[in-house]
Specification:
Distance between the termini: 41 Å
Keywords: Signal
InterPro entries: Alkaline_phosphatase_core_sf (IPR017850), Alkaline_phosphatase_prok (IPR026263), Phosphodiest/P_Trfase (IPR002591)
CATH superfamily of the largest domain: Alkaline Phosphatase, subunit A
GO molecular function, one term: alkaline phosphatase activity
Protein name: Type I phosphodiesterase / nucleotide pyrophosphatase
Shape: globular
Strand content: 15-25%
CATH architecture of the largest domain: 3-Layer(aba) Sandwich
Signal peptide: 1-19
CATH topology of the largest domain: Alkaline Phosphatase, subunit A
């Protein structure tokens, strides 16, 4: 009797398991990374939206209100590298869009590569400085190169890092010519992109592009007192930087959509049962990188137009592929353009921090301590690089000099903390140090990392724009939508590095090779 009961229970259990098949593998995964998208802005401007963009995402998607980046100093490049690799800059090597090359003592772009020429551009680019695999690479490996991977973005770093080492193509807008361009690193430049450039690229249409508010001015809120007139921008009015202004406006999102439509029509993407990846990047930052105070109405209208671009993209994918065959992943780069100094109008404590003066005084201190020499080799982006060759020739202890330098720098006005490479690599652990350590790469970061106090202005003598430090969190969403995704809203924070294993799991492929996170459940 007991044996028969157990057999019945087991039979029911296995029958139940068999009755719950795994969700179908999507024919197409669409990753939409929206540069500087903010959850709080999405909500604040919701009265201006239609029903088929943000509201549809919130209604039909699995929505994580807050994603967190487990490293300091996030920018567009480091964020996108983390999203697609599932790991932090300490592993994937993309510590920022630019870093100092210690061999040439010059800043380099994270996708610079002189080994490859450009298509429709004179930039030399490849993903070779991305040190780990990505979901794009793992898809190519798993499908023996049958899965297609294309990336379209306003900017070069976003396109190349999203396409990964094995992608079929990465396309970005040439900010000087208005043509879509790429690199010879990837396969032959597609005929349909060349054809598009000859007939439909933005340079043919920019003279007619005028940005005015979608809604009457009375519908926009949070405006400064002086703002009583609607804005009007004609991109073609400035001959030298018209395409840079286009790239830093919501109009670029429609241009991304137009090329994506061409891709879906002219290529074989999503035409078979092998999963493909379409990696798109939008822009949702301040217009022309100006301050929020200057662009309060423009920012609201950016979200209105972003809402419409998302709606158009969803309709396009539904028409060409069918949303039930697609998994959408929409997320943000999790940072915001730095604000300009407020000139003490609001009496917020602060001051000016000059990295060049800091580096000069540090060198004088090291000379007084260890003798003549140029101990500080260079500095860049709140980091100081020491002269390792000089230190070695003098038979000095590099770790000791790094730690003494950090102790010296902490005494400067405006410095919150100074981290030595030695401390980051071998020192004790704290939650704060973990964020700094995850952003640090031992071959690309400086010997000394300086954390400046919030409210202080970092003055760069080599640039025209100075920035105010903010340590405040930027609320960034993560939304999944498509076949097999059940609508749900989750307010518990989730790490951005869990996107890669989640998408890998959905495509039935391995997670990227440096990704240790577990997938999120749909």
């Amino acid at each position: 009797m007991k044996k028969g009961l157990i057999t019945s229970i087991l039979a029911l259990t296995f029958t139940g398991l068999q009755a719950q098949p795994l969700p179908a593998t999507p024919k197409l995964v669409v990753t939409l990374t929206i540069d500087q998208l903010r959850t709080d802005y999405m909500e604040a401007f919701s009265s201006l939206y239609g029903e088929k963009g943000f509201k549809r995402l919130m209604r039909e998607g699995k929505v994580f209100y807050q994603t967190e980046f487990p490293f300091n100093g996030t920018d567009r490049a480091s964020a996108i590298a983390a999203i697609y690799s599932g790991t932090t800059p300490s592993m994937n090597g993309i510590i920022s869009r630019h870093w100092m090359d210690v061999n040439t003592l010059r800043p380099v772009n994270c996708v610079d590569d002189s080994s490859f020429m450009g298509n429709f551009t004179d930039e030399n680019s490849s993903p070779s400085q991305l040190l780990t695999s990505t979901i794009a690479d793992e898809l190519k490996i798993a499908t023996r190169n049958k899965g297609l991977v294309y990336a379209i973005a306003p900017s070069r770093d976003a396109a190349v890092l999203a396409a990964g080492h094995s992608g079929n193509g990465a396309f970005w807008l040439n900010e000087n010519t208005g043509k879509w361009c790429s690199t010879t690193y990837y396969s032959e430049f597609p005929w349909w992109v060349s054809q598009y450039n000859e007939r439909k690229s933005p340079d043919y249409r920019i003279r007619d592009m005028v940005w005015e508010p979608v809604h009457p001015i009375t519908r926009y809120t949070f405006l400064p007192e002086w703002r009583d007139q609607a804005f009007k921008y004609k991109f073609d009015s400035e001959r030298l930087n018209k395409f840079r202004r286009l790239i830093a406006s919501p109009f670029i999102n429609d241009e991304v959509n137009l090329l994506a439509e061409e891709l879906l029509e002219k290529s074989t993407i999503a035409k078979d049962e092998v999963p493909d990846l379409l990696a798109l990047t939008y822009y949702a930052g301040n217009y022309n990188h100006r301050s929020t105070q200057e662009c309060a109405m423009e920012m609201q209208d950016t979200y209105v137009r972003l809402d419409r671009s998302i709606a158009s993209l969803l309709d396009l994918i539904d028409l060409k592929v069918g949303l039930h065959n697609v998994l959408f992943c929409i997320t943000s780069t999790g940072y915001a353009d730095s604000e300009a100094p407020d000139l003490a109008l609001y009496r917020i404590p602060g001051g000016e921090f000059h990295l060049n003066r800091c580096a000069t005084l540090l060198n004088m201190y090291l000379m007084a301590t260890y003798g003549e020499g140029q101990y500080v080799e260079t500095y860049h982006n709140q980091q100081i690089y020491l002269n390792h060759k000089l230190i070695e020739n003098k038979q000095l202890d590099l770790a000791e000099i790094q730690d003494k330098s950090a102790d010296f720098l902490i005494q400067f006005s405006g410095v919150n903390e100074a981290y030595s490479a030695h401390r980051l690599l071998l020192g004790s652990w704290t939650p704060r140090i973990e964020l700094v350590r995850n952003a640090f790469h031992r071959k690309r970061s400086g010997d000394l990392l300086i954390d400046v106090l919030p409210g202080w202005t970092i003055v760069d003598e080599n640039a025209t724009d100075n920035r105010v430090v903010r340590h405040a969190n930027i609320p960034a969403p993560l939304i999944f939508l498509g076949g097999g995704v059940k609508p749900e809203t989750i307010r518990i924070p989730v790490n951005i590095t869990r996107i890669a294993p989640t998408l890998s799991s959905a495509m039935r492929i391995r997670a990227p090779n440096a990704c240790t996170e577990t997938p999120l459940n749909f």
